[in-house]
Specification:
It holds the Pfam family Acetyltransf_3. It contains six helices and eight strands. By secondary structure, the chain is of the alpha+beta class. A hairpin with a 7-residue loop joins strand 4 and strand 5. The structure holds coenzyme A (COA).
């Protein structure tokens, strides 16, 4: 059975994964959600105004009322900057499987932060929440995300054509990846 623990703070070498607060909305907007270089790889488009981000962060903060809600802001220990977010979604009580999604601000790409954050939540998901399987998918034109998945031990299970349609009305083929709790624990 999944043990739902909400969104506790998780510390890694360089990062603090923590709940978002309403006061983070400006940083979320400035650092990644207003930037098409980031959102082009996501389903929802870039925010044009901080008010859209305030609405989004309000929904996230409301989610924390439920112990089943797992949505972390990614903060840099050194500077205290909020550089991205990572979450579990589609938590399924029948299969005990879930999906993971993540995004980082462009100026922090390629410094290992995505891998560090994903490794930390996957460890939390398997060791503390007893999740059975964690899956993720990335657009084929976003190979860096697949690299992050492979670096933490996920394996590619296939490719799904036109799996998503993004905010620019483009269909994207996606690579789907997964890791089983049993594989992780070995
Ligand atoms: C995907 C994302 C989170 C990666 O975060 P990150 O902190 O840059 O990742 P890391 O630095 O840990 O690792 C990135 C790896 O991809 C590699 N990489 C970067 N660009 C690449 C490219 N065009 N092709 C192949 N590999 C690439 C890097 O070299 C690095 O591998 P290495 O450590 O072996 O050198 C970040 O790019 C991002 O937020 N993108 C926009 C949102 C997004 O794509 N979210 C995921 C949706 S599935």
């Amino acid at each position: 059975m999944i043990t739902y623990l909400g969104t506790p703070t998780i510390e890694t070498d360089r990062l603090i994964l923590r709940k978002l607060k309403l006061s983070d909305a400006q940083s979320v907007f400035d650092n990644w959600l207003s930037d098409e270089r980031v959102t082009d790889n996501l389903i929802r488009g870039a925010h044009k105004t901080v008010f859209e981000t305030i609405e989004r962060v309000t929904v996230i903060v409301g989610g924390y009322d439920s112990p089943e809600y797992c949505y972390w802001g990614i903060e840099l220990k050194g500077s205290g900057e909020l550089i991205g977010a990572i979450d579990f979604f589609n938590l399924n009580t029948t299969t005990e499987n879930c999906d993971v999604g993540y995004a980082l601000g462009y100026k922090w790409w390629n410094q290992g932060y995505g891998t560090e954050a994903l490794r930390a939540v996957v460890e939390f998901g398997f060791e503390r929440m007893n999740i059975h399987k964690i899956s993720a998918a990335h657009n084929l034109d976003n190979p860096a995300s697949g690299k992050v998945m492979r670096k933490i031990g996920m394996v590619q299970e296939g490719t799904i054509r036109h799996m998503i349609r993004n905010a620019k009305n483009q269909y994207k083929d996606c690579a789907v990846y997964g890791i089983l709790q049993a594989e992780y624990m070995k």
